[in-house]
Design brief:
Largest sheet: none
Shape: globular
Structural class: mainly alpha
Mean pLDDT: 77
Helix content: over 70%
Order of helices and strands: HHHHHHHHHHHHHHHHHHH
Length: about 500
């Protein structure tokens, strides 16, 4: 008589998956709250620390530069040395840096602490997404063992989206009634809580014996940092030249690393074919490199693998979702910046008093993550196309409302503008969520950290495009709307082309 299989292992796995989801969701909430709650406090920081407007802007720019440039390396570190370990390191660095930010006496020290905080945020997001992908693999919900990776990531992004709603209000209240330092102290217990949850989550790492490609890591980080700096100040062409030079060095280093990873046995067999011994007379189990395999294996393990898998950029769904997510993220930044100005002009409110009117758009943006998590992986690209079309049309309508306000139409930024902003925010929220959930379902699980790091880096670096799109006239919704529509047309054309090829093969 066969004994029933005990369910303790499945219950333990399910419990560990819940702890992983709680850790990633709390960590993402902490990062988002820090970003959105700090913006209303910047004028108070400038007045308290006696800094200039350009120097105060580096409180945000320094964080974005560090986070965006380090994310690909952080994702790869999670794959190689353990995703839970790197998540804990990122949370510890984030909490320690937040404490330093709350204690610094001068603006330069605050900028330096924010750079370290950006490094912590770079470790939290990619490694957290990769941890969920490996703890909750695709197909998990079909077996009745909880949500799959894309749905779990959607839930984590949904909780992080709550910070988008309450962050500006909370930051403004704390800066006005308590202190701007309280904004940083608020994130410390959240990071500690996320770390306690991560300690109960299962550990995972890729079965890759190769060390980190240091040359590729340094050149990639430098190229992304220079690119992000140039996107913030497009008039400074020196940063663009530095980004191009470091990018070329990165490509060269990656090609060399890929060449070193070619199978050594194949190279030696091509040089010295064994013609002296017929195949049928070789003893059973004979290896052409008998006596040397351990030596060659050790040499192969000591040689670093490329920082980025070349097949990642031949993965069309991954590239499509990442590029479309970057466009959606830039449009989201422009929307969140322009909408308060538009409402304040249309209703005669001061800019700090326009935050309550943003609640509808912020709430619509927050629900994008859970909705994206419920999209089937096979339909991710099609849904992304629909979201970009919807967002582009809504941003055009909002831009027309803003033009009416500029022309002197008092009250032109009323209900129609708020409705258009809510529709645009909902579509952009789903598009941004799909860029993170969908890309994790089309890559190998052992490379999940690398894939999420590249996606998050592209989305973070291009976030500044939403603010610089208007040029000297300031941020505008015209270019983000056009970018969404053009991106939607390109993705739709790619989908039609793929379908025609499939029909031709059949």
């Amino acid at each position: 008589m066969s004994m029933p299989t005990p369910r303790f292992s499945s219950l333990s796995t399910r419990r560990q998956a819940r702890w992983a989801l709680a850790a990633v969701a709390t960590g993402a909430f902490c990062v988002q709250l820090d970003s959105f709650a700090l913006n209303p406090a910047l004028p108070v920081i400038r007045a308290d620390l006696h800094g200039s407007a350009a120097a105060t802007a580096w409180v945000v720019s320094g964080y974005l530069l560090a986070a965006g440039s380090l994310m690909p390396v952080a994702g790869r570190l999670g794959d190689l040395y353990g995703r839970r370990r790197m998540l804990l390191l990122g949370l510890a660095l984030f909490a320690a840096s937040a404490s330093l930010c709350a204690l610094v006496p001068s603006l330069p020290l605050l900028v330096a602490a924010r750079v370290f905080q950006g490094a912590g945020g770079a470790l939290i997001m990619p490694t957290g997404l990769a941890l969920l992908t490996n703890v909750c693999p695709p197909g998990r919900e079909q077996r009745g063992r909880g949500p799959g990776g894309h749905r779990a990531i959607g839930r984590a992004l949904g909780l992080a989206g709550v910070a988008t709603v309450c962050g500006p209000l909370l930051g403004g209240v704390l800066a006005a009634w308590v202190s701007w330092r309280a904004v940083f102290w608020l994130t410390v217990p959240l990071a500690v809580a996320a770390a306690l949850c991560a300690l109960r989550a299962p550990a995972s790492r890729a079965s890759d014996p190769h060390p980190l490609d240091l040359t590729g890591a340094v050149t990639a980080t430098g190229a992304l940092a220079c690119l992000a700096r140039w996107l913030q100040q497009p008039a400074e062409g020196l940063w663009a030249a530095a980004a191009a030079l470091l990018g070329a060095l990165f490509v060269r280093a990656e090609r060399r690393a890929a060449a070193r990873q070619q199978p050594l046995e194949r190279q030696l067999l091509e040089r010295r074919p064994l013609k002296h011994q017929p195949l049928e007379r070789r003893p059973l189990g004979h290896h052409p490199l008998e006596g040397q395999p351990l030596k060659h294996q050790s040499l192969e393990r000591r040689s670093p693998a490329p920082l980025l898998d070349p097949s990642l950029f031949r993965n069309r769904p991954y590239v499509t979702l990442t590029a479309a997510g970057a466009v959606a993220n830039a449009a989201t930044v422009a929307l969140l910046y322009v909408l308060p100005l538009l409402l304040s002009r249309g209703r005669g409110w001061p800019v700090p008093g326009a935050e309550p009117a943003l609640l509808a758009a912020a709430a619509a943006l927050a629900v994008g993550g859970p909705l994206a998590g419920r999209v089937r992986p096979a339909a991710a690209v099609r849904v992304m196309t629909l979201c970009l079309f919807t967002a582009g049309a809504a941003l055009c309508a909002l831009g027309w409302a803003g033009a009416g306000v500029e022309a002197g139409a008092r009250g032109g930024a009323g209900f129609p503008a708020e409705a258009a902003a809510t529709v645009a925010a909902a579509a952009l929220g789903v598009a941004g969520g799909l860029a993170l959930t969908g890309t994790q379902t089309v890559v190998r699980r052992e490379r999940a950290g690398e894939a999420s790091g590249v996606t998050k880096a592209v989305m973070t670096v291009t976030a500044g495009l939403g603010l610089t799109a208007g040029g000297s006239a300031g941020p505008s919704l015209v270019i983000p709307a056009a970018a969404c529509l053009v991106a939607a047309c390109l993705v739709a054309a790619a989908l039609v082309r793929v379908r025609i090829r499939r029909q031709g093969r059949q």
